[in-house]
Amino acid sequence: MRHRLDIWLLALACVSLLLITVLHLFAFANLDSALDQLPVRNQLLDVLRGSWVLYAAHLLIAALLCALSAIWPARFGRGLRAALALWMSIDAGLMFYFVGVFLGSVLTSAVAAVLLLAAALPIRQDSARPTHSKPS
Known about the structure:
mainly alpha; 4 helices; 74% helix; 0% strand
């Protein structure tokens, strides 16, 4: 089987998204202890905690969709790849705007670029056809 650049790019994006998810979840312990040190305890802090975990789930879903696109390229093709690239670009843009330059925004930007490149590459249609066809 030929090595296909688009599949390798999708694998790289998937692994990167999983890494970002793990880093994000590990950082939750620091966030949680820092919020516990604040003199006030209100619903806004609970919303922040929930949003933090929700974003980790958001990244995990993106990683799973990226994996589906790599495993079944004919079924989940360019449209999903382009949507994932747009999704990660929006995430990165919002992070740069609200938080600034940090590891998460840089990694998310890199993932968006990799997904954009994977979406730009052609998807071979022969992977969707059966290989046991009879010659005419």
